[in-house]
Amino acid sequence: MKEYTVAVxxxxxxxGQKMIETLxxxxxxxxxxxxxxxARSAGQTVEFRGRSVEVIxxxxxxxxxxxIALFSAGAKVSRALSPEAVRRGAVVIDNSxxxxxxxxxxxxxxxVNGETALSHKGLIANPNCSTIQxxxxxxxxxxxxxxxxxxxxxxxxxxxxxxxxxEELLDQTRARLAGGAVSPSVLPVASLPVHHPIAFNVLPxxxxxxxxGFTKEEMKMxxxxxxxxxxxEIAVTxxxxxxxxxxxxxxxxxxxxxxxxxxxxxxxxxxxxPGVALVDDPASQRxxxxxxxxxxxEVFVGRVRRDLTHPRGLNLWVVSDNLLKGAxxxxxxxxxxxxxxxxxx
Length: 345
Ligand code: NAP
Ligand code: 3JN
Description:
Blueprint: E1 4-9, H1 14-25, E2 30-37, E3 45-48, E4 51-54, E5 56-57, E6 68-71, H2 75-87, E7 91-94, H3 110-113, E8 123-125, H4 129-145, E9 147-155, H5 163-177, H6 216-228, E10 235-239, E11 249-257, H7 263-272, E12 276-278, H8 290-293, E13 299-306, E14 313-320, H9 324-340
Parallel strand pairs: 1-2, 1-6, 2-5, 6-7, 7-8, 9-10, 12-13
Antiparallel strand pairs: 3-4, 9-11, 11-14, 13-14
Helix pairs in contact: 1-9, 4-6, 4-9
The structure holds NADP nicotinamide-adenine-dinucleotide phosphate (NAP) and ligand 3JN.
């Protein structure tokens, strides 16, 4: 089998580390791994297949000879360096929001719209984590019954906000338990002047606010869902919330379908849907939870129930590992799809 030279940009970050782990676990045909980060981390090492591999600074020339570049170092880095990588012949799978809404760039969740990846022009975007797990769960229902409207509330783990946010939750938890004071500096948004404690708290803000009162994370869910489902009319009303959980985003999702459904059909569709694991047994208190989803590639769905008031209303509880299916695993799945279906030069 052909082997590929694979760059991971952001290799020292929360997502980049999971990308490297996922390449190894999935036995992706990596001939050479090239971990990249900022000049700050150049010279550090990452572990891959039992060996230490040196991290190099991500600069335009570093992309000479790279076949596939998985980017996860933020939108600014992606905007600056991914065109440089593409110009040098790499196919870029970008985990940032930089190009997601660009009509020339496919926005891909393999279980939902995998075929769109094959029309790439060198660049493929990985959607936002909250969007990915929602559309994987809803796709089988969308195809069978149509969906008019989605009302979603997220319960997002701190790892979605990066390595520093994980440290902040753990440090604050230890400090509070020891009776000490905390001085938040990362959440809800590191670059804003005001920060709130996350330990023993819940923050109804993920990313910055837009003029319409929704946050950027919420607007990503609206716009990315429309693009992935190729349905500019679908109504999405999100509220994104940060909770003191390290890994695993949860979502309470309410949908109104276009056509009537039976619950038996819904269970059947979810049971056989690619990438979905149905965990729904109220009698034995079985439902998806972040602690059980951590480290797993599936999107877990439970608490499936017909709405009490709307005849075509359905409630679901959707949980997934935000660093895996929400980021690293989805990106590696896209790379696998390109290898399997001739999508690489
Ligand atoms: P993180 O833990 O803070 O890691 C950031 C990574 O980016 C580090 O490896 C860092 O390297 C690198 N980096 C920073 N500035 C750089 C530069 N100028 N050149 C090259 N590398 C640079 O953050 P994370 O949680 O892994 O997230 C990284 C990005 O992934 C986010 O900004 C976002 O765009 C994307 N993301 C997407 C999703 C999703 O929903 N699909 C979820 C989370 C994150 P140093 O060690 O050298 O600083
Ligand atoms: O907060 C989360 O749970 C998900 C965060 C995703 C994120 C964080 C910083 C920058 C993104 C993203 O992927 O949408 C970005 C970004 O690239 O805009």
